[in-house]
Design brief:
mainly alpha, 5 helices, elongated, RPEL_repeat, nucleus, Myocardin-like, repeat, transcription coactivator activity
């Protein structure tokens, strides 16, 4: 004979509060419509691992260490910049680090100002009223 399921307990959650049954019905409704495990895995809400929950943290930590080891191995076999320059992959930049930094700052200012072009390399006597955007010579009205 088929086993009958027991009805859900209808005792109120809090007899002193009216509307407690509404809360209970709301919870039951949400539980009936909760997404399946596969859907939660697809949305990266749950891990795809089938390991016991007590082991999942250790599994995640192990995967992290394995990725780090793999990256360290790849980095250790990476060619040096000198080798890449010798092979013609990289080209040596004759500018000093300060010049490169200054140019990067000017490019960033230009992006923020909405400039469509950048001056090639500003001479020392160009104005600094709007760095990297203003490309005219200093006059008495410009700030240096």
């Amino acid at each position: 004979m088929a086993e009958q399921t027991k009805p859900v307990d209808d005792t109120p959650i809090s007899p002193a509060r009216p509307g407690a049954s509404d809360r209970k019905n709301s919870l039951e409704n949400h539980l009936l419509h909760r997404p399946a495990r596969e859907e939660l895995v697809e949305k990266n809400i749950l891990p795809s691992s089938h390991a016991a929950p007590s082991l999942q943290a250790q599994q995640k930590e192990l995967e992290k260490h394995m990725r780090a080891d793999s990256l360290n191995d790849k980095i250790s076999h990476r060619p040096t910049p000198e080798t890449l320059i010798k092979d013609g992959v990289l080209h040596e930049d004759p500018r000093s680090a300060d010049e490169k930094y200054e140019e990067a700052i000017e490019e960033e200012y230009a992006k923020r100002e909405g400039a469509t072009h950048l001056p090639a390399k500003a001479p020392e006597d160009w104005c600094t009223c709007r760095p990297a955007v203003c490309d005219h010579k200093l006059t008495s009205t410009h700030v240096r």
